[in-house]
Amino acid sequence: MNKEKIVSITSNDKMRIDHYLNKEKIYPSRSQIQNLITQGQIKVNSVHVKPSYILKNGDKINLYPIEIKELKIDAENIPLDIIHEDNHLIVINKPANMIVHPVGRICSKTLVNAVLFHCKGSLSGINGTIRPGIVHRLDKNTTGLIVIAKNDTAHLSLSKQIADRKVTKKYLALVRGEVEENFGTIDAPIGRSIKNRKKMAVIEQNSKEAISNFKVVRRFSNYTLLEVTILTGRTHQIRVHLAYIGFPVVGDPDYGHRRNELDINRQALHAYILGFNHPFSKKYIEFKAPLPKDMEDLIKSLKEKKNKSR
Question: Any idea which architecture 71-164 has in CATH?
Fold first, then answer.
C-alpha cells in the first residue's frame, strides 16, 4: 500500500473487523491485524476502534500505509521435555529462560522454533507464522506445562475451553512471607500499569477480570509454598496478584523485592498441573510436571533451615 486505502462495507453480516480483514487476506495474519488496529494503523470511518468492532453496512475501513513484513521463523533442533503427544496436540514441560514465541527482534531459540522442528511444521495456523499452535503462554522464566495445538480443530477447542474456564491450570509458587490463611481467593482486575507500561498491575481502569485461588502447601520461616489455580489467564497474573496481597514470588525481578536473598535467578513459579478435555476424544486428561531442580533445591534448603531452627 503506497497510500491510504478505503474498503467499503456493503453487507449486513455483522462481522468483527479483525475477522473480516483476516477473511479477505489483506494482511498475513489475524494477530498482525489486531496489532495494527490497536496501534491505529487501521480505522473505521477515520475513527480508532477495537479489534472486536462489529462492522455495519456503509462503514469505511481506513487502511493506512505500512510496510508489512511477515517474519520467517526457522525450525530449530532444540531438545523438548515432552509429557504427552498425539496426532492433535503436544504437552511440553517448558524450561526456564525460554520465550514461548518470537517477539520483537527475538525470533530464535523460542519454544515455537523447537516445536516447528519436532512437529515438522505440522501445527495449527490460526495465530499465523509467529505463533503456530500457541493456545496459551507462560512467561520466559516460568517453568512448566504448556499445550500446543497441531491442527485448527484442536486449537479452537482448547481456546474455547480456556475462555469457558474449563481448563485446569495449577501452579506452585514460593512466596516471600508467611501466609496465614490456608486458602484464599484473589479477585482483582489486571491491566497495564500506569507507572510502567512494561508491567501489569491491579487497576480499575482499562483492565480485565482476573481471579486466582490459592492454598498453602507448606510454610517455612519467612516463606510459603503455595498452590495457585487461575480461573483467568491475564499477563503475569499470578505474579501481580501475589505481589498485590503482599506475598511476592521469590526471585521475581519485576514484582518482587529488588534484593533476592535466596539462591534462584528467576521467579520461583512452576505450572505443574494442566488438564482439559481432549479436542477429539472429549475425555478429560490431566498432566503433572515435577518441580524443576532450582525450585526443588530451594525448597529443600528451606526445609533444612526450618528443621535446624527447631
Answer: 2-Layer Sandwich (3.30)
Alpha-carbon distance of 22 to 4, in angstroms, equals: 18
- For the chain (310 residues), the mean pLDDT of every run of 10, in chain order, is 76 85 75 78 89 90 68 89 98 97 87 96 83 94 98 94 96 97 97 90 93 97 96 96 97 83 90 98 97 95 75
Q: Choose the CATH number for 5-63 among 1.20.1250.20, 3.10.290.10, 2.40.160.10, 3.40.1550.10.
A: 3.10.290.10
Report residue 139 as a C-alpha cell.
512467561
Pairing outcome for strands 200-202 and 207-208 = unpaired
Catalytic residue among 13, 18, 74, 139, which?
A: 139
Of the candidates 161, 98, 144, 153, the residue with the CA atom closest to the CA atom of residue 123 = 153
Task: Report the relative pairing of strands 183-187 and 211-220 from DSSP bridges.
Answer: antiparallel
d(CA 42, CA 49): 8
Cβ atoms 94, 143 nearer than 8 A: yes
CATH of 166-310, one of 3.30.2350.10, 3.30.200.20, 3.40.1280.10, 3.40.50.620: 3.30.2350.10
CB-based burial, 200-221: b 16+ in 10 Å, e otherwise? bbbeeeebeebbbebebeebbe
Using alpha carbons, select from 191, 197, 194 the residue that is nearest to residue 241. 191
Amino acid symbol at 115: V
139 is a catalytic site residue: yes
